[in-house]
Amino acid sequence: FSSNQKRINVLKELEILRKEALTDPLTGIGNRRFAEITLKPLEVSFAEHGVPYGVLFVAIDHFKSVNDVHGHDVGDLVLRMVAQTLANSLRPLDVACRWGGEEFVLIMPIVTEGTLRGMGERQRALIESSWLDQGGNPIFVTASFGGAVSREGESGVEVIARADAQMYRSKASGRNCVSVDTGQ
Predict the structure, then answer these.
(1) Who's near 56: CB < 8 A, 6+ residues apart?
(2) From 102, 103, 121, 158, active-site residue
């Protein structure tokens, strides 16, 4: 028998590199590439078996003012807080990813419009009630949510685009709310 230790070490290194390539280094959740990879099998499952999936597009409200007033280090802490709030309150099959800047996507297999709306409201309330303590001064943020459930013949990118449009609808409606594409 010969030792497999070299092969095992190579496999461990590959797994570490894969994780680094698919994880947002600031927040510790999946990055945009991971979101795009996660959507592919859901697209196939929907096309072949009709199993719907949903996307919630999330943007922290007035994030620029957090950076302007408190500095970028505190802004980074806010991003981490929101990311962990999102990630820690999902179902086991759901995925939280940082899309870019102060934006996140939540990918949720096997959902209906009602489930997606409910999950969005829950996440919104959790973010609204979370805070950072900065020298005895709490820092609160809110987030605007947009949601969309997959439609026949639609790519994951198109679902994200519809969810993104709904997020802008939430912002236009006063922020700190959830808007879901009803398909009408």
Answers:
(1) 105, 106, 108, 116, 119, 120, 123, 145, 146, 147, 163, 178
(2) 102
